[in-house]
Amino acid sequence: EMLTGDLPFGDADTPETELYKNISLHDFGNDVFASAPNKGAISDEAKDIVKFLLHHENGSRIGSGPKGCDEIKSHPWISSTNWKDLTQGRVAAPHADICSSKIQANSSLELEKQFITDAEEVSAE
Fold this sequence. Notes:
Strand content: under 5%
Largest sheet: none
Structural class: mainly alpha
Radius of gyration: 18 Å
C-alpha cells in the first residue's frame, strides 16, 4: 500500500472478513504487485523486500532470523540508508510536504478524534 497507494488484498469497501480471507489464501510466491496500476514504477529491489517482509512463515520472514533487523537493513533496497542519521532525526522525510499539507487540511482535534475512534474500534474487536 505504501508503494502503490492501493490496498493489495481488497479495497476500501472490502469487508474485513473477506480481506483476511484474501490475505490468508494469497500465494506469497506470486507478485503482490501484479494488479497495481503503477507496478512498472516499482523496482525489483522494492518488490523483493516486500515479498520477504510478507513471507507467511515467521522463521523465513526477513528480519526474523539470528541477524534480526540487520538483515532488513542490509537489503539492497534500503542498504544505502544512513541509519544513525535516521534515528537521530537528521534525515528529511522525502514526502513530508505532501503529508504536511494533508495534516494541515484537518484540524488536530479532528485527527485526534479519529485516532481515538480507530483505537476504540480495534480494542472492541
